[in-house]
Amino acid sequence: MSQALLLQPDRTFVEDVIASGGGDLKKCYQCATCSVVCELSNARAPFPRKEMIWAQWGLKDRLVSDPDAWLCHQCNDCSTRCPRGARPGDVLAAVRQKSVEHHAVPKFLARSVNQVRFFPLLLLLVPAVLLAAALLLRGPLEGMLPPGELHESAFYADFFPHWLLIGFFSSFTALSFVGLMLGLLRFWRGMAGADKAAGDEPAMGVVSSVVRTVKSVLLHDRFGKCTDKASRRSSHLMAFYGFLALFIVTVWATIDLYLLPMLGVESVYPFNLLHPMKIVANVGGALLLIGCAKAISDRSKSRESGSSTSFDWTFVWLLLAVAITGFVTEALRFMVDPAQRSVLEYTAYSIYFVHLILVFGLLVYLPYSKFAHIFYRTVAMIYAEYSGRTLKTGAGELPAGAERKLVAES
After folding, report:
1. In-domain check, residue 409
2. Which residues contact 327 (CB under 8 A, 6 or more apart)?
3. pLDDT digits (tens, 9 = 90+) for 311-337
4. Which helix (H) or strand (E) holds 23?
5. Widest CA span in the chain
6. Does 175 lie in the same domain as 123?
7. Residue 296, domain member (yes or no)
8. Could you tell me the residue range of the domain that residue 79 belongs to?
9. 145 Cα distance to chain centroid
10. d(Cα 70, Cα 376) in Å, to the nearest integer?
11. Among positive and negative, which fits the CA dihedral 160, 162, 168, 172?
12. Considering the entire predicted model, what is its pTM?
């Protein structure tokens, strides 16, 4: 039985999508070439054709909770083959940005972090002021700590002790993580609400869906299906595993510095150059550096088949800056003679401070920047497995309720 559908276009949303990189949206005339050539699209809920018409109609509520927009990895195979030059890949990238802004908690941060005019304030001034305030509180806080907590032999600990550094970043990152979890929960509920309206039932358990998705993320196998920008897979893999390695080393350094002594094991921090964790850190930093540089090079060379906005560029440049300043601070640590004060020592402290500012921007603004894609896309992929959207079904083999859903989404 057919059902009437009341459309409530959001004209502002259409303008926002166009301003965020989907400038050729209105060229689309629904030929469906994009859905046909996309290797990641499927019979269950083909994209990006339906997303293109939803965006033209201003159906914000459907798009911001659409898991299929996140299954797109912006390889732009669709954009290079579009007969009208509508660039569906760029439109879906803009939709994903709007999705993050819609679900973020608080929303104003997501809107602000991605606007160039707020970069000096949010990415530089705010973290610099907060770090300076933490340093001013160092004296009073030291008086409240047990004497054993104050003996740190690491070079930069003279400037910013690890107990203060760990407390500072842990506090702000924890707040950021709470906001991220709330945003992802809102996103999941939005996806589930759309499927409930279509009458579908789950096709797989949540645990199985998570396992399949984690395997896909670790292999980056979906990038392997791209043809126009197949090289993006290697840059993403290097940046992904480089960041993961640095995260693991950071966690282990904290354990080595504080937890192991509590268990009677002597701490060996700071690690020397031949320590396994230092080797992992340097390899991870090199992977991050090379991956970011390659990503910047790839984006610069492929403007004709896909655009990059400040939402994209800010993230990749920030990652690159974190990697560079990290290596510089490490090199200066071994160059400075701690027995005597020098210009080089103050230079090292200054660059280390800049490094901390950049790390703050990367981690604390995670739920509101391009970095949030790692989590929103992963959740969307889990939901796609859970709901059966990724099932490779042929004609006449769609699961129960799928025909009704496809009609509703087309």
Report:
1. no
2. 285, 289
3. 778 888 999 999 999 999 999 988 887
4. none
5. 84
6. yes
7. yes
8. 11-103
9. 36
10. 8
11. positive
12. 0.87
Q: Which pLDDT score, from 0 to 100, does residue 152 have?
A: 61
The answer to whether residues 139 and 74 belong to one domain is no
Q: Which of 161, 160, 164 is nearest to 172 (CA)?
A: 164
Task: Say whether both 98 and 243 belong to one domain.
Answer: no
**Residues 127, 87: one domain?**
no
Token pair in block for residue 346: 């103050």
Residue 299 lies in a domain: yes
Same structural domain, 203 and 349: yes
Using CA atoms, how far apart are residues 25 and 143, in angstroms rounded to an integer? 60
C-alpha torsion 140→142→143→147, nearest 10: 180
Could you read off the pLDDT of 257-306 as tens digits, one per residue?
888 888 888 888 888 889 999 999 999 999 999 999 998 888 777 654 45
Give domain status of residue 407, yes or no: no
Which of 59-68, 259-268, 300-309, 358-367 is predicted with the least confidence, judged by mean pLDDT? Answer: 300-309
Contact (CB, 8 A) for 135 and 160: yes
The answer to whether the CB of 93 falls within 8 A of the CB of 74 is: yes
Q: Which amino acid is at 51?
A: E
